[in-house]
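Students often ask why inverse folding is considered easier than folding. One informal answer: many sequences map to the same fold, so there is more than one right answer. In these notes we will look at a single instance of the problem. The structure comes first.
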């Protein structure tokens, strides 16, 4: 669910971005129904997720959420990390968050016809409620957490995950800063490999 990170790790390549954004909605070999450049974005997304899931720093920070949300701890941490990406990297002087997000929405809208059906259903809400830009705000994270709680089959409606996020804010922030540079290096290397294929 960390849409912002996957968009950022598409390195301003619109076709890679499309694949990276929709990957969770493309199961198994259905990726072969998309143009090759979008397929590369789907593959990049999966490699990013595999790298993230095996990282010891990420595993450590997931434990903060685990008592309250169990196996969903990764989904909550993904959104928390998008908060710090939006707030501390994409709001920098060299990268403007608002313009970056608008470019994502434009790319997705232009390519609407080829998006997976479930992604098409979600996209209007993503744009109208401006999910990606609102990750910079704690209220945006609270709404995203509530969204997971509403959709997840095996979660209570009120898990306390947002309170955990606030209580452990600086720990999670530190975890993000420890992890994200490694992820960026890995993702860019994989991006370059895919572009040569």
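Output (designed amino acids):
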């Amino acid at each position: 669910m960390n849409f912002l990170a996957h968009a950022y790790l598409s390195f301003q390549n619109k076709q890679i971005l499309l694949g990276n954004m929709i990957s969770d909605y493309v199961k198994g070999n259905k990726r072969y129904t998309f143009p090759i450049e979008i397929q590369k974005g789907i593959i990049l997304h999966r490699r990013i997720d595999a790298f993230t899931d095996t990282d010891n720093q990420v595993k450590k920070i997931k434990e903060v959420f685990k008592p309250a949300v169990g196996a969903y701890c990764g989904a909550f941490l993904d959104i928390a990390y998008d908060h710090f990406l939006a707030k501390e990297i994409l709001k920098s002087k060299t990268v403007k968050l608002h313009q970056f997000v608008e470019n994502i929405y434009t790319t997705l809208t232009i390519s609407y016809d080829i998006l997976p059906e479930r992604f098409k259903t979600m996209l209007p809400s993503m744009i109208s409620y401006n999910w990606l830009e609102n990750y910079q705000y704690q209220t945006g994270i609270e709404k995203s957490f509530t969204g997971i709680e509403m959709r997840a089959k095996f979660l209570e409606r009120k898990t306390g995950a947002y309170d955990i996020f606030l209580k452990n804010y600086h720990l999670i922030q530190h975890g993000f800063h420890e992890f994200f540079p490694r992820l960026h290096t890995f993702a860019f290397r994989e991006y370059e490999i895919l572009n040569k294929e």
